[in-house]
């Protein structure tokens, strides 16, 4: 298989082990250039990437790690190494690219010069390993067609990425939708193909991992709303509002009324099972409905975490779940 010289790839990771080796193997023979950006691995990932033929970039340990920063530095390495690539496949180190994806995605960009980014179906490698992995697999299953945003696995037009200034390196999460807001504001479109793109290995087997990941999402909602919440975009405003209503206002109201008005408190508390039933009927999955409803609590905590960090003037570190 001859690699497409127009396509370069940027993979990012830390201590991904065998997952990273699968990721790089899936890029070999398909991307003309491969850059691996390492965020302080101690498991020999940089050496494994170099052995696989990738250019290795080690992030400076003195500066905070973010996926956004890693991707930007990977793109910068591509720019320094030669002519700017027409297309760049960004991929997380715990993902494996599916055969045929790059060819299909590049052909779509070839035929749609107003599209800046194209993504496809990301699936969990082990959806049956835990309820959390299964729910994440459902989370990735979004409808094809024009979209508001992409995820971390995406084929981007190099010129569009460069003109937009890349990802915001200060964001600890939600950097992909935030970049897409700027791309769309510049007149570009984002597209999701009905095609297999990557296998992802979330490896979430414990409730605490799910809780931290969901809390991180709430943090990203609040930060996204703070950055682009004004009309007409209203970016992440509805997500933030739902988290605060279901995960903070309702629990506080139930607790406040528990002694002076217990029947009213009970009536309010019934809103949760009613919401679970409504979501289960709409989505056809009771477990998903339960976790979507329960997840509003860690999301609300993430929203509060963002505003507390913002008011204190401190910088929030990564919220990791692996």
UniProtKB/TrEMBL annotation:
Named from the GO MF annotations, one term is: transferase activity
Which keywords, in A-to-Z order, does the entry hold?
A: Membrane, Transferase, Transmembrane, Transmembrane helix
Spans traversing the lipid bilayer: 244-272
Positions of the Glycosyltransferase 2-like domain: 15-125
Mind telling me which InterPro entries this protein's record contains?
A: Glyco_trans_2-like, Nucleotide-diphossugar_trans
SUPFAM superfamilies reported for this sequence:
Nucleotide-diphospho-sugar transferases
PANTHER family membership: GLYCOSYLTRANSFERASE, PRE-MYCOFACTOCIN GLYCOSYLTRANSFERASE
Q: What is this protein called?
A: Glycosyltransferase, GT2 family
